[in-house]
């Protein structure tokens, strides 16, 4: 496989971050779990019933708007001035596990998506950031529901890069989709296996997805 320069840059950064994270105690690998988030949410039914080897999460194209060098950042909707960027709040949480059903700690989870108006920030890092999974393989972002842009349904982009030594699991590039979107059926990349599970959370949404990487 030939890696693009941007992909190599991400993986080089991911390997360094994940490697250093593995030197810490397992419970401190990831970020502090934010107040108000489900501290011990039940495993996804698919995760709970995992039978090794579990089916890997489907890959999808990176698309044209990936940008390496993102900040380690949990709150993508903060505007840096104590407020929030426009858009319906979306908390995105999930777990990573290998095909052997074990959680993957210290993995890099890279997230990028369009803003509320369907625009990508190609000069800065608005709605771009990465997190490290904690000892239970969990990650979480605060962001907003992305807007629509021509030719695509509503979606999020992710790259999940297991830590070095993570049972040989390879990085996964994929996308996540929103249920009940009129454009889903017309988007050639849409895959129902990549649908978020959404629930209302105040004025916003809590979206969950558990990944199997390997
Ligand atoms: Fe996109």
From TrEMBL:
InterPro entries, per database record: Intradiol_dOase_C, Intradiol_dOase_core, Intradiol_RC_Dioxygenase, TAT_signal
Domain Intradiol ring-cleavage dioxygenases residues, every copy: 62-182
Entry similarity comment: Belongs to the intradiol ring-cleavage dioxygenase family.
Keywords tagged on the record: Dioxygenase, Oxidoreductase, Signal
GO molecular function: ferric iron binding; oxidoreductase activity, acting on single donors with incorporation of molecular oxygen, incorporation of two atoms of oxygen
Pfam families from the UniProt entry: Dioxygenase_C
Superkingdom field: Bacteria
Name the UniProt record assigns to this protein: Protocatechuate 3,4-dioxygenase beta subunit
Signal sequence bounds: 1-28
Keyword Membrane: no
SUPFAM superfamilies to which the protein is assigned, alphabetical: Aromatic compound dioxygenase
Keyword Oxidoreductase in record: yes
Region (Disordered): 38-87
Annotated Low complexity bias: 38-64
